[in-house]
Amino acid sequence: MTFDKIYQYNFPTIIRFGPGSSNELGDYLKKNNLSRPLIVTDSNVSQLDFFKAFTRNLQERKISIEVFDKIHKNPLKSDVYNGTDIFDQTNRDSVIGIGGGAALDVARAVVLRVNHREDLFKYDDLIGGDVFVTNEVPHFITIPTTAGTGSEVGRSAIIADDETHQKKILFSPKLLAKIVFADPILTMELPPFITAATGMDAMTHNMEAFLAKMPHPLCEGIALEGISLINQSLERAVNKPDLESRGQMLIASLMGAVAFQKGLGVVHSLAHPLSSLLDTHHGLANAVNIPYGMEFNIEGFEHKFKRIARTMELKEETGEAVVRHLFELNAKINIPHKLRDIGVKNEHIETLADLAIADFAHPNNPKPVSREDFKQLYSKAL
Ligand SMILES: NC(=O)c1ccc[n+]([C@@H]2O[C@H](COP(=O)([O-])OP(=O)(O)OC[C@H]3O[C@@H](n4cnc5c(N)ncnc54)[C@H](O)[C@@H]3O)[C@@H](O)[C@H]2O)c1
Ligand SMILES: [Fe+2]
Q1: Cross-strand bridge partners of residue 66
Q2: Could you please report the per-residue DSSP string of 37-86?
Q3: Which of 125, 181, 230, 301 is positioned for an S-S bond with 22, CB 3.0–4.6 A?
Q4: Is the separation of the CB atoms in 250 and 290 below 8 Å?
Q5: Does residue 45 line the site of ligand 1, with CB under 6 A?
Q6: What is the DSSP code (8-state) at residue 299?
């Protein structure tokens, strides 16, 4: 690390972590004089038993709730507009996001839109839109039910345009939740495939954050511990889940999102176009691409891969051993080895490369990535 500049390091909100922590929500709302929350989730989670028990519990405490669950798996701008309409029409005083990254992102974007009514994409961070986020926002609470994106501790929401499906990032420190209830019990029934895909998303966040070029020792320490926890627990969480493996995955996914304020990299830029073009789940897209993207990063960064290998307790402390280990881990949790197994075809590669080079993540990759590199990586993974 060189000591030649001033950097800003931000750390997140209050986190109530542990089994049963989500039961504290009712008391928390009462203590903060909140009685009319909008609950944003997806239409799958809203049918699950824990969600029904959760809303029943709030109603028994005389808290008026309204559930908005009509969101797309890769959330759209119209989802955010519809959610905000419900907020207005039913006179809400706060927003609770409960679910996976998609639900939490829509919840966060509704929080933004309530008092910021210009076109949603005016607030796109990539065009400097964060400066327009100047008004107060409603009290915002997050409750993750997957262990992957870590969006519960994030300050951004990824929302796509309804027509072009291009993903935009809405960002502001104001969009940080006031409190996170991270309760591993809510993740106990996650199906194996979702556990695997979201878990590898969390692995990708921690690894890419550790490698990203900004000097940030705080985040690097968090990222290495995140890698270690996922390495110890993901296979178990997928194949033989228990509270310990679920708890380790939940905290490690949250750590990945804390760490990636340092930046992401080539793997996320390979993955995002698959979601835009083919509607591939974000975690799955990262999971298939991570061994190939990491292999690309080894040369010149052998010293960092040595630390990752040591963290993963591999016999051979090299980048090549890390890549082999990622392929093996993917195999154990039934993640496909090749992009063709998830519907990618040769004819997609040019468009994917165009989207990848325009993506926001790779400029923080430890080394530059060209359009030609993206083509080669997609071809290799095909
Ligand atoms: N804001 C950020 O920083 C950030 C970072 C990365 C990704 N994302 C976004 O997050 C989204 C992906 O999030 P995700 O990986 O959590 O997937 P997701 O939100 O799409 O959830 C995956 C599936 O799991 C189901 N599910 C959720 N909790 C469950 C539970 N406890 N039991 C059973 N099923 C459950 C959901 O209904 C859904 O079908 C993408 O839209 C991506 O763009 C955001
Ligand atoms: Fe991600």
Answers
A1: 38
A2: EEEE--TTGGGSHHHHHHHHHHHHTT---EEE----SS-BHHHHHHHHHH
A3: 181
A4: no
A5: yes
A6: T
For the stretch 156-211, pLDDT in tens is: 999 999 998 788 999 999 999 999 999 999 999 999 999 999 999 999 999 999 99
How many angstroms separate the first and last alpha carbons of the chain? 37
Q: Which residues pair with 40 in a beta bridge?
A: 68, 97
| Strand pairing category for 167-171 and 156-160 | antiparallel
Please work out whether the CB of residue 79 comes within 6 Å of at least one atom of ligand 1: no
- Beta strands 156-160 and 94-99 are unpaired
CB of 273 closer than 6 angstroms to any ligand 1 atom: no
Write the DSSP symbol of residue 260. Answer: G
| Type and span of the H or E element at 168 | strand 167-171
pTM recorded for the entire structure: 0.95
> How far lies 276's CA from each of 40, 235, 251, in Å?
23, 28, 28
Q: How far is the CA of 174 from the centre of ligand 2 (A)?
A: 21
Q: How far is the CA of 31 from the centre of ligand 2 (A)?
A: 34
Instruction: List all residues 6 or more positions away from 216 whose beta carbon is below 8 Å from its beta carbon.
Output: 7, 9, 261, 262
